[in-house]
Amino acid sequence: MPRNSALVRRSRGRHVLLAVTVLVSALVVPVVTAGPASATEYPTWEDVQRAKGDEQAKQAEVAEVQAALRAVQAEAAAKSQVALERSADATQAEADLAEATRTATSLQAHADDASATAQRAQTRAGRLAADLYRDGSTDQMTTRIATAGDPDALLYQLGALDQLSTTWAGVMDDASVAAKTASSLHDQAARAEDERAALAAEAEEKARTAEAAQRRADAAVASTESHSDELYAQLAELRDSTAETQRRYEVGQAVAAQAAAQAAAAQAAAEAEAHAGGSAAAGNAYPSTDGVVVDPAAAQAYARSVLGSYGWGDDQFGCLVSLWTQESGWRANALNSSSGAYGIPQALPASKLAAAGADWRTNAETQVNWGLAYIKGRYGSPCGAWGHEMGVDPHWY
């Protein structure tokens, strides 16, 4: 897919991403050109049965059911996209808070150490001052000069007194510097704590927003799945096939349309990137796994179990493992923080995965279904996709 690899190494410039987004935006959320606009207008089984006897009516009813299918998928896709974005925001806020907490803690520790150093310097200066007073008061010195029996001993005492005075002056300077350093660090620590507290409040708010978005997405997904099952069954009835066959067919058609639009966008994106003179390094993130089962081994096992339904043998599995290990590590919550590519197959934009199921944000199997349909339509096989991935630099498929 012409887009950034999740675990790699690059991202297109923002203007490039904008160009891609504009060109493929029509496929981010399924477009409804006709058919029911609300749940109360979904085709009924009576409509399906009446249409079966007339070929023209049957084709019209197929179009009606397909339009309803796109309509029911659209809302869930949009809400799941919002949930993904809010989850990423909350994850980043938590990371920012953790960093601010480390900074505030470190500064406070340095400030405390500086205060202890200043206190030790002040204590030493006080002791030296006491020694200086005891050994060097004017009255004492006058008495010693007048009664000195050993001039050499007196000269020694005077030298020691001078050395003591010099040491005391140095210690006082050290104490002054230590006190100023401690004061500055305590000010920095206080500011860092204020920032940490503000980030904590922000992280809490973003977590609540993410949870609310997830609840809305979960409700939309549940509703969509119940309607989608019935609509696939209606298509199967109209076409004398099975609901699973119709599901695979509709997913394949939707993904093929997405791939065609993506191919058209690729040229414009490549030209824009060349004009920009390169790209920046990509970042990676793993949004909150709330509701997402991140189990690479289980995802691989599922992918292997359905290879045959796409006409591939087990010889293709190794290529698929290599491809999606490089793209996402087979993590269902892998998000390229630069491009927005998401999931095990790294769909860009993420909501394209909705073509395979409303639960695309949380369900690894739905992501795998979309990815296999994409590979089938674009490259013919996983080894074909892996060959392309490794044949271009930076790598993408």
Automatic annotation (TrEMBL):
The lineage of its organism: Bacteria, Bacillati, Actinomycetota, Actinomycetes, Micrococcales. InterPro entries: Lysozyme-like_dom_sf. Residues 188-218 have a biased composition (Basic and acidic residues). Residues 93-122, 188-226 are annotated as: Disordered. This is Lytic transglycosylase domain-containing protein.
